[in-house]
Design brief:
The complex is a heterodimer of chains A (341) and B (171). Chain A has ten helices and 18 strands. With 341 residues, chain A is of the alpha/beta class. In chain A, helix 7 packs parallel to helix 8. Helices cover 83% and strands 0% of the residues of chain B. The model of chain B has no long low-confidence stretch (mean pLDDT 90). Classes of the chains: A alpha/beta (341), B mainly alpha (171). Chains A and B meet through helix 4 of A and helix 6 of B.
Chain lengths: 341, 171
């Protein structure tokens, strides 16, 4: 099936969840804008904003959003079933079919000091999902040695394409890569924030490969132990390692002979020693490869790949993983094989 | 003479039929009220245990209930698909339901009270509202049953006898 144009995805999967007045205005946007749209932000009493990768603008023709309009959007998004979205409301985001994510805030209702639910929703942020198939093409050869995959950590500041890269890496490892003589692996994805597979009612909305099992919404540390027991994975994938409990669980997995692929927050190679969690991860030698991403050439620029054992760079180059919403030129690309997009 | 007899028989049959239809609609009303309670009980289960989305739950429940309830559920779901808010879809479909069945406007009141709250709050709150509506429907059912018992025979006799009276007057 050929990939659908982003404007078509917007029309089919996102616009039906908005009020009639907004539906009309969004449909009338020029296709070029629709294709590059990243976020739609709705705020009660303020005009609707559209966010693109390099700018934002007020939705042409829209006046400030009224409370009933917001309530109608909420009804459409929750499909008149707030009770079924309780857990997601507590977390502050709802996943739509197609993997699009709606972040929301309003008045928090507390119980025992924890957020029980949100009411009087005042802001919605609809983030359009866009899976970049082939995002990992350029790095994957560095992560495979003699036909076997080496545990990998992806490190970058937010918004640089860590999760996009992770998702495609999962897809490729799950399907197998004949070119690198890599067979398909059983992968368990612990998707705490539903960002990797973007599950809607338990069904992954993104292509995560044929041998991938997704545990959606569980805490990472607990989830890693669960999939380890229940799914006999060869590789465990997870997003945003942040706490020492996560590190302990990853160690446990490694002892069981499972390889890992994960992401963590960090600004660059210098952070490896500075951030306690990263330092911890390296100290235990959990990861054989570390991939750094940055915004240097737009979102999704691969800065460098490090060897996790001796912390020596194997490769330093600015490469775009592709799929950025505006053209990202790849410069200084020596090997034409790994340069595209 | 034969013609007269035939006419008289047709007349008695007609009025009798009207009486029986009225009697049957009283019984039907009781049945519908109990089915509506069944609908709410089903929603309680779907919301509490299965956490099914409301449109899906309505489609499921419709299939397992009588044709009137099925029609009602389908109407709600198709209005939702058109983008109408649930409160409006629910109220509209309820008034259609009371139009095409023997349910009175008062009978659907407990369900109408659900319109502004259904699907809009957390599970606990939903269950509370559904249970309350169920209780109100049960009271209406008891009332309807009493009325049916009292009036059913009355309508049957009334139908046949009024036919006889008209025949006697005409003869």
């Amino acid at each position: 099936m050929p990939p659908r144009a982003p404007s078509l995805i917007l029309k089919e999967e996102v616009i039906p969840y908005l009020t009639f007045s907004l539906q009309d205005l969004l449909c009338r946007l020029p296709t070029e804008l629709k294709d590059n749209l990243l976020e739609i932000r709705l705020r009660v009493g303020r005009p609707v904003m559209l966010v693109f990768s390099d700018m934002d603008m007020v939705l042409p023709g829209s006046s400030s959003l009224s409370r009933p309009e917001m309530e109608q959007c909420m009804q459409l998004i929750t499909q008149s079933s707030v009770y079924a979205r309780e857990e997601e409301l507590r977390q502050g985001f709802i996943t739509l079919p197609g993997g699009h994510r709606v972040g929301l805030v309003g008045k928090a209702v507390l119980e025992d000091g924890r957020i029980r639910t949100l009411k009087n929703i005042s802001s919605l942020n609809i983030r359009l999902a866009r899976q970049v198939v082939g995002a990992a093409d350029k790095v994957v050869s560095y992560l495979v040695q003699d036909g076997s995959f080496i545990s990998t950590l992806l490190v970058s500041p937010p918004g640089c394409g860590k999760t996009t890269l992770l998702r495609d890496l999962i897809r490729q490892l799950s399907s197998g890569i004949p070119k690198l003589n890599l067979k398909g692996h059983k992968i368990a994805v612990v998707d705490e924030r539903s960002e990797i597979a973007a599950c809607y009612q338990g069904m992954p909305q993104n292509d995560v490969g044929p041998r991938t099992d997704v545990l959606d919404g569980a805490k990472k540390a607990e989830g890693i132990m669960l999939v380890l027991r229940s799914m006999s994975p060869e590789i465990i994938a997870t997003d945003e390692i942040g706490s020492s409990a996560d590190v302990v669980a990853l160690e446990e997995a490694l002892v069981s002979g499972v390889r890992l692929v994960a992401t963590a927050h960090g600004d660059g190679p210098d952070d490896l020693q500075e951030r306690p969690v990263l330092r911890e991860l390296l100290k235990h030698g959990l990861f054989g490869r570390i991939v750094f991403l940055s915004m240097a050439k737009g979102p999704g620029t691969i800065e460098a790949v490090f060897n996790g054992q001796d912390l020596k760079p194997m490769f330093i180059e600015h490469l775009s993983i592709g799929g950025g919403r505006h053209d990202i030129k790849t410069s200084r690309c020596l090997n034409t094989d790994i340069c595209y997009g | 003479m034969i013609l007269k007899l035939l006419g008289a028989l047709i007349l008695i049959f007609a009025t009798g039929n009207i009486g029986f239809t009225m009697a049957r609609s009283l019984k039907r009303r009781v049945l519908l009220l109990s089915q509506l309670q069944g609908l709410l009980q089903f929603l309680v289960t779907e919301i509490d245990f299965a956490v099914t989305l409301l449109p899906e739950a309505l489609i499921k429940v419709g299939e397992s209930m009588g044709p009137e309830i099925d029609h009602f559920c389908q109407e709600v779901v198709s209005s939702l698909q058109l983008g109408l808010p649930l409160s409006i879809a629910w109220e509209r479909s309820l008034s259609t339901l009371s139009d095409i069945t023997s349910l009175s406007g008062d009978d659907t009141k407990p369900l109408k009270a659900l319109a502004p709250v259904l699907g809009l709050s957390d599970r606990k709150d939903q269950l509370r509202h559904l249970k309350l509506a169920q209780e109100h429907l049960r009271q209406r059912e008891v009332k309807a049953e009493q009325e049916a018992n009292q009036n059913q025979k009355l309508w049957c006799y009334l139908g046949v006898l009024s036919g006889l009276v008209i025949v006697l007057i005409l003869v």
